[in-house]
Design brief:
This protein is an alpha/beta fold. It is built from 16 helices and 13 strands. The strands form 4 sheets. The chain has a 7-stranded parallel beta sheet with strand order 2-6-7-10-11-12-13. Strands 1-5 form a two-stranded parallel sheet. A two-stranded antiparallel sheet has the order 3-4. It is an enzyme of class 4 (lyase).
Length: about 350
């Protein structure tokens, strides 16, 4: 799918190349804070109806780009598509979030797990990737911005598979990790193989960067994090296609609550490490130097403040990183559904404006 990128700032930043300004995209940038997203979701009938239909997924992926001058698009999907493809029966309960009809908690459950046939079970995702790439590209082959593909990490997927849904303390999955580590490692190994196949299929379909969301890695203790989360992210990274159609495909990983392990995460072969809002960005840059790019990390709650405060906080993040290559501006986690779109516009504008002024001082 050859195309010429009109805006490759995001990809160059991930490769720690100089850029005219700091690129920005937002985790969950296509979501419930946008009225147009809610209208499309209503037409789709449900979240799964939205996520499993390539036409709807393409529509909502493009919506934030039509509102804001963001520097990347991210595939609209869900991290739980992979365990759903394993036959666990995903559904979304109003007010409760995701639930699986079947959990994975014993020898028999684990024995039934298998790496899904991506083309047979998740074709709707790869079709959406290809369709979004086409929608981002004009008749002359000029693509507006790059497209990011993604997956949950093996550990984060296991949390939902064992718990059966979201959990405030991850009691069941952590108990398994300590009492039956053999079972947990078998789950994680299958998950890692599935994530490799899934992300490589997205790359083949047209994703120009991929991100691994380790949402619940920070729930683990030091030592357990390395054994049950980081080691398996490293296996995924080692199995990914890092080049497609002669172009490098950067890899980002993000462990929420993972600032403690920044240097270890940076050493597994990724191109960029995402950081949550608890991390001092300047100190993080000093620790990793030019080994990896950094992504983040303003507190999403800042977007509830006044425009003046939003702009002040955006400048603080940019000033903390400094005038160095290798920064992609993002939130420290996903955007809240209660955020005003007008406030997002203020943030995007200030990131572009202030980062240009920082570069001009060179």
């Amino acid at each position: 799918m050859p195309s010429t990128l009109l805006n490759d700032t995001f990809l160059r930043a991930l490769q720690r190349q100089p850029t005219d300004y700091t690129p920005i995209w937002l985790m969950r940038q296509a979501g419930r804070y946008l009225p147009e997203y809610n209208a499309t979701r209503s037409r789709a009938g449900s979240f799964l109806g939205l996520a499993t239909n390539p036409d709807y997924a393409t529509e909502v992926t493009l919506q934030p780009l039509e509102r804001f001058p963001l520097d990347a698009a991210i595939l609209f999907s869900d991290i739980l598509t992979v365990p759903d493809a394993m036959g666990l029966g995903l559904n979304f309960v109003q007010g409760e979030g995701p639930r699986f009809e079947r959990t994975v908690r014993n020898e028999e459950d684990v024995a039934k797990l298998h790496v899904p046939d991506i083309d047979a079970t998740l074709r709707y995702v790869t079709d959406a990737v290809s369709q979004i790439r086409r929608a981002l590209t004009d008749a002359q082959g000029r693509q507006k911005v790059p497209l990011i593909g993604f997956s949950g990490s093996p550990w984060t997927l296991a949390c939902y598979m064992v718990e059966g849904g979201g959990s405030p303390d991850h009691h069941t999955v952590k108990a398994m990790a300590y009492t039956r580590p053999d079972l947990m490692h078998r789950i994680l190994d299958i998950n890692a193989q599935a994530v490799v196949a899934y992300l490589n299929a997205q790359i083949e379909a047209g994703a120009q960067a991929v991100m691994i969301f380790d949402t619940w890695g920070g729930a683990l203790a030091d030592g357990a994090y390395q054994r049950f989360s980081l080691d398996y992210i490293a296996k995924v990274v080692a199995g990914l296609k890092r080049e497609h159609d002669g172009v490098k495909v950067p890899v980002i990983t993000f462990t929420k609550g993972g600032g403690l392990w920044l240097e270890q995460i940076a050493a597994i072969g990724v191109d960029a490490v995402g950081l949550d809002w608890t991390v001092n960005l300047g100190q993080a840059r000093e620790k990793v130097g030019d080994r990896v790019a950094l992504q983040g990390n303003i507190d999403p709650a800042v977007l509830f403040a006044s425009p003046a405060v939003i702009r002040t906080e955006a400048r603080a993040v940019l000033d903390s990183f400094g005038n160095f290559p290798g920064h992609v501006f993002n939130l420290g986690h996903g955007i809240s559904q209660f955020t005003r779109p007008e406030n997002v516009a203020e943030l995007v504008d200030e990131v572009h404006r202030h980062s240009r002024s920082i570069r001009a001082k060179n």
